[in-house]
């Protein structure tokens, strides 16, 4: 399986920054992985690449953390669905609205079930036996030629 080793949090944030530079309005990125795998660190890297000056908080409690111009160059909703018990609850979040002029970064996206958009880029973070992380991906047609970024080919 295609993937990228991530030695530490800085490497995870750097991978997120590569993602952030590629994001366009209408993009959905599903972030998969166990608790503590680095999903929020990856999202923080993406948001920093979009210009967010402060460290993005985890949206675990708020569920949705929205970022808009001028704080970021592209509006992004950072979403954490861990606390959702039913995929139907996501309809109340208005996630489609974010896609009109921005992008979605969704942690625990599997909680949406079949409600996940078909052109979603799926990124999975796994902990390796040595305590590092490995990033793997499933690329839909909408992301072909954009993901993985060229800087990953050296890894």
UniProtKB/TrEMBL annotation:
InterPro entries: P-loop_NTPase, T6A_TsaE. GO terms for molecular function: ATP binding; metal ion binding. GO terms for cellular component: cytoplasm. It holds the Pfam family TsaE. It comes from the Bacteria. Keywords: ATP-binding, Cytoplasm, Magnesium, Metal-binding, Nucleotide-binding, tRNA processing. The keyword Flavoprotein does not apply. It is found in: Cytoplasm. GO terms for biological process: tRNA threonylcarbamoyladenosine modification. Belongs to the TsaE family. This is tRNA threonylcarbamoyladenosine biosynthesis protein TsaE. It comes from Edaphosphingomonas haloaromaticamans. The lineage of its organism: Bacteria, Pseudomonadati, Pseudomonadota, Alphaproteobacteria, Sphingomonadales. The gene is tsaE.
